[in-house]
Structure formats: C-alpha cells, structure tokens
Design brief:
With 295 residues, this protein is of the alpha/beta class. The protein is built from twelve helices and eight strands. Helix content is 40%, strand content 17%. It has an eight-stranded mixed beta sheet with strand order 1-2-4-3-5-6-7-8, with helices on both faces.
Length: 295
C-alpha cells in the first residue's frame, strides 16, 4: 500500500477519512498495544495487498492493438503486452502501485514512431497477472522474468513502485549486457521511507517500521535499506539514467527524486511542475523528453 495517501497532505485532508478506515486505525492501534505480532501481521498484509481497481473507460482501447502473452514468474503468470515489430529493440514500460499496463497508453504511439518495440506488463497482483499480494522483490522478480524474454532491450521506463522495484532489486539485462537507457519517474527513495509514511497514515508507532525492516531482512537476506534506489540502482550498470519528478508530487516527495539523482553517478534530473504523481504519465512534453532521451 505504498501510494495510499499523499506524503505531505494537510492534516484536514488526512482527517477526512471514511469511517471504515478510522475503525481500522483504531483496531490496529489497540491490537498493537496488546498483541504487537498480530498487529504487524495485519499491517504487513495491508502493506503488500494492492486493490484491483475497476477498469477506466480508456484502458481497453489502450491495449486493443497489443499482442498478448504470459510469462512465468515466481509469483505465477505475468501478463505481457507488445506493440511493434519483433526485430526492433524493446522499451519495457513498468507501472506503479495499483496501476496496470494500460496506464502507459499515451507512450505507445511516440515510441513506435521512434522505431522501438513497446512492451508493458501487469505486475504481480495487478491487472491480468496472477497473485493477491506483492512485495518489491516479487515485483522486481516479475520484471526480470519479462526482461529475460525480450532479446535486445533499449530501455526500461518505470513509474513509482515500478521504478523502486527496477532499481531496488536491481533488474539487469541477461548475460551481463549493459542497459543503454533507464528512465525513473516519481520514484520513492526506498522501502524505509515508504514504510514510515504507511505507519504515519495508520497512526501506528514507528516500532512497527522496525518490524517491517526486520521482516524484510529475514525473508530476503538483505537489509531493507539495501533496496533503496540510490543504493542498489547504480549496480544496474545503466549507460544513461534520467530521473523525472514533479515538484507537486502529492505521493512521493520531490526531494526523494532529487536524492536518487544526486546519489546515482551521471544521472540526469528533470523536474516538472503541476503534474503531480500520476498526470506525469500522460503529459505530452514528458513523453517527448523521455523518448528523446532514449535516442
């Protein structure tokens, strides 16, 4: 549940919540005071369970011309959509939390016109892919499974949780090949800050965040902070990296995009204004900037 609430929402907005959510907060707080382990299990379940939101009217047309297939991953089947000639270098588009491949519809035409094969996936527990829960490593593993089937890859373009998964694993091209271009949009700095925002939203003690970190290390064998984009990402060995972030991003603070770019040797940072966390995906100038970067 990384993108559940604006990172720096005014207090009045945070208090304008449905009664069910207020009840959940109270239940979790009470459970934390008397049975912290049970509270953690419930909170973790919420944290890794995306909602499967109803399809929007424009989503089916966005995928209408795509060739469809599935790829096997550790989480089950991953739905993959492709446009363009099979011989062309691929650009893989990776969506964020509670999004789907169809959210990249505005990118398909410009990328095809630039001579690329366009590939998008539904992450685990999203869209037509299988699963009910998904962690960053699950998501990253599914991306890696798709990458392994693509042949020549020109670029990965990833948004939000997708960007965190690509950089945090990190995803790599097969046989040690260098990824020519990487574009990260609206990316969070790391799991730790996302967990802290989650705990703040549910008004739980920050001791819960410590349990998240312990659980991640126990289940992955890696410290939670080792998945931070600025820490793990440079190990991808991408030739050129573009970090895009909007100054008015209401989900992931603008400063986190700046931190990622500053810590990633050679990364280019491009700021936008007035687009927020999601409209940046549909902005014609952003798409043009990214496509030009891929050349």
């Amino acid at each position: 549940m990384p993108d559940i609430l604006p990172a720096k929402a005014p207090k009045v907005l945070k208090d304008m919540l449905p009664p069910g959510l207020r009840l959940l907060r109270w239940q979790l707080w009470l459970k934390w005071t008397i049975a912290p382990t049970l509270a953690f299990r419930q909170a973790w379940g919420l944290f890794v369970t995306p909602r499967r939101l109803p399809l929007k009217a424009w989503e089916a047309p966005a995928l209408a011309d795509a060739a469809r297939r599935t790829v096997a991953a550790a989480t089950g089947t991953v739905a993959v959509y492709e446009w363009g000639p099979a011989a062309a270098p691929a650009v893989l588009l990776v969506h964020g939390w509670e999004h789907r491949a169809s959210f990249w519809g505005a990118w398909v035409g410009p990328l095809l016109a630039a001579g690329y094969r366009v590939v998008a996936l539904d992450g685990p527990a999203h869209g037509a892919s299988s699963g009910r829960q998904v962690t960053l490593t699950d998501f990253g593993g599914a991306i890696q499974a798709v990458i392994n089937t693509l042949g020549e890859v020109r670029a990965i373009v990833a948004h939000s949780f997708g960007a965190a998964s690509v950089a945090g694993l990190p995803v790599r091209l097969p046989a040690g090949a260098v990824l020519p271009r990487l574009v990260l949009m609206s990316a969070p700095e790391g799991l730790q800050v996302v967990a802290e925002r989650f705990a703040d939203f549910l008004r739980l003690p920050h001791g819960l965040v410590g349990r998240f970190a312990t659980h991640i290390q126990r289940t992955t064998g890696r410290p939670a902070d080792s998945f931070a984009a600025a820490v793990a990402g440079p190990r991808m060995g991408a030739e050129k990296v573009l970090v895009l972030h909007d100054e008015d991003d209401e989900i992931i603070p603008y400063a986190e995009g700046q931190e990622i770019a500053a810590a990633w040797p050679g990364a280019v940072f491009h700021a936008t204004q007035g687009l927020g966390h999601n409209r940046i995906l549909r902005d014609a100038e952003v798409i043009q900037t990214a496509v030009a970067f891929l050349a």
